[in-house]
Amino acid sequence: MSEDTSTRLNKFISESGFCSRREADRYIEESRVTINGKAAKMGATVKAGDKVAVDGEAIKSRKPTDKPIYIAFNKPAGVTTTTDTKDKNNIIDFIGFPKRIFPIGRLDNPTEGLILLTNNGDIINKILRAGNNHDKEYIVTVDKPVTPEFVTKMSSGVRILETVTKPCFVQQQGKNVFRIILTQGLNRQIRRMCEALDYKVIKLKRIRVMNIKLGNQPVGNWRYLTQEEADTLHQLVAESVNTEDASYFDFEEAPEKPKRTAGKPRTASAKPKSGGAKPKEPFVNPKSASLRKKGAAGKPARSTGKPSEGTGRSRGATGKPGTASGRSKGRSR
C-alpha cells in the first residue's frame, strides 16, 4: 500500500504563505477556494500535482529554500488587523511590505502596540493555539484610579462571556494605569474584564509577545526580528500543539470574515531588498510611517536581540510576572 502524501487544504494554503490557516478555513467556507477548478469543501486534501487557487489566484507551495519572514510592527490605533485590502485601513497596505505576509493574531482597531507578521503559517498556528499558554503583555489606562481591590479581582479571574477568566499577573503602574500579562485570549478580553468591574479602558497597548518586546520602536514602524529573537521564538514554540482540533486565541477582537471579491486578491509585485528576513541588525522600514499620515515619525527602534523577560515584582503586583519561557502557571489574558 502506498504512503498517503496528501495535505489538508487549509494547511497547504497556510504553508504557502498566502494566509493563516484560520483565514484559509473562511475562504473555503465561502467557496472561494478551488482544487483543479472545482470548489473545495472543508476537510479537503491536496495531493501532488493538484492545482489550488483562491479567488482564481494560484497557490504555490513554498520552496524549501524560501526563508521565513518575521516582522515586529508597532500598530497605531485606527489600523485594522486584516489582510482584506478592501478595508482602507488594513495593516497590509499600511506596512507596504513587498512580499505576502499576514499577522499573527489580532489587535482591535483602537488598540495599539506590538503585533507580529510572518509568511510562516506553521508558527502562527503554534503561537495562536489557546492551549499553548504563550505570554502577551499589555499596559492599560482606565478611566478612574486603580485600587488594590481592582487588581485582586482582575488577577483572580472575572466573569465574562459566560465563563471566568484564568488567573493572571496584574500590577499597578500608575494612578489609572496597570500592567497585565495574559496567556488566554477571549474576545476583547481586557476591555470586557474592566467593564465587568465598572472600569472603562481609555488606552490599551501591547508591549510584548512571548520573547519579543516592543521597546522604543516608534508607532507606525516595523522591523525584522533579530536572528536571536527568531531563534528563541522557535525554541519557545518547539513543544507547542499544532493540531486541527486545538482552539485558537481570539486576541483583542473576533476575526472579521474576509469579504467576497469578484477579482483576485491584491498582491505585491516588488521584490524585497537583498538581505531577506535575516539582516545582521534590526531594520526599521523608514517608509512605514513617513509615507502615511498616521502613527508617529521617529528614529528606527534598536533591539538588543536578547530574549525578553517580564519585569520583577513591585508594589501592587498580584500573581507571577511572565517570562520568556511562556510556561508559568495560571497566567492568562
UniProtKB/TrEMBL annotation:
For this chain, the family text in UniProt reads: Belongs to the pseudouridine synthase RsuA family.
Sorted alphabetically, the keyword list is: Isomerase, RNA-binding
Transmembrane portions of the chain: none
**Pfam family name, one:** PseudoU_synth_2
- The entry's protein name is Pseudouridine synthase
Q: What is its EC number?
A: 5.4.99.-
Query: What superkingdom heads the lineage?
Result: Bacteria
* Originating gene: rluF
- GO MF terms, alphabetically ordered: 23S rRNA pseudouridine(2604) synthase activity
Q: Where is the RNA-binding S4 domain?
A: 7-63
Task: For the region Disordered, give the residue spans.
Answer: 247-333
Keyword set includes Isomerase: yes
Q: Which InterPro entries match?
A: PsdUridine_s_RsuA/RluB/E/F_cat (IPR042092), PsdUridine_synth_cat_dom_sf (IPR020103), PsdUridine_synth_RsuA/RluA (IPR006145), PsdUridine_synth_RsuA/RluB/E/F (IPR000748), PsdUridine_synth_RsuA/RluB_CS (IPR018496), RsuA_PseudoU_synthase (IPR050343), S4_RNA-bd (IPR002942), S4_RNA-bd_sf (IPR036986)
Give the enzyme's main class according to its UniProt record, as a single word. isomerase
| SMART domains documented for this protein | S4
